[in-house]
Design a protein that fits this description.
Elements lengths: L1 H11 L13 H13 L2 H16 L8 H28 L6 H31 L10
Length: about 140
Amino acid sequence: IALLYRSYREHKHIPPSHKPHIQYKKRTSFLTGLTIAITNPGMIVWWVIGYKLLLDLQLFDTMNIPLKATFLVACCTGLAGYLTLIAFMMNKLQESISDRLLDRMNIVIMILLVFVIIYFSFKLYGLLTNTTIDILYNV
């Protein structure tokens, strides 16, 4: 605790003339943000969930290696496109997005996550009890 206090005091008492001027470059900042977002475990989990949903919908008879490779390339392209779009939108709309809009966007994302959790809870229950609850086709 003492070290945290000392580092905080040292940080607060730097004279303005001695503060280094950090110059951010757009390209470096974009690539840094993109690599951080790509390695985000939440994004990776979303693509794994998408693969599981693709299997559950039984759109294909068999999942062979070319189909898996196509899915992987499509996911990587979609992820890079999505993250690029978000980065450009946030760069252009930095100040115009209100906190209220961000709160509403988070609520929508939470609702979507609740539906995904419910879906996989039913799938887990079906696996544990050795029954089939097909909520995708019984709607």
